[in-house]
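Morning run. Coffee first, then this:
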Amino acid sequence: MAGTILSVGIVLCAATLSVTFVTAGSAAVFSQRLAGVADAAALAAADAASGAVVGEPCDRAVEVASASAAQVTACELDDLAATVTVSAPFGRLAATVSARAGPPE
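And here it is:
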């Protein structure tokens, strides 16, 4: 009887750790993907600000972010540099990432 309870406890601990590690790994992957979306949106805005592509810089950032199911929550321009913040839901939480693109300072 004692061995059975110990075995069940060990299995429950292993299952809990497994779920925790999978969730943490998924969050890390999601964060990196969202960072890539923020980078792409900031680059698109900076390209539009410099005249390399046509359109309004923040509108271009919104187009790029929405193609990846993310929303632009902030878009700021400083001459040719663009800082874009995007967010997307991860489960019940919202993840937010910012990126900056433009000429070197």
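The chain has a mean pLDDT of 92. Good start to the day.
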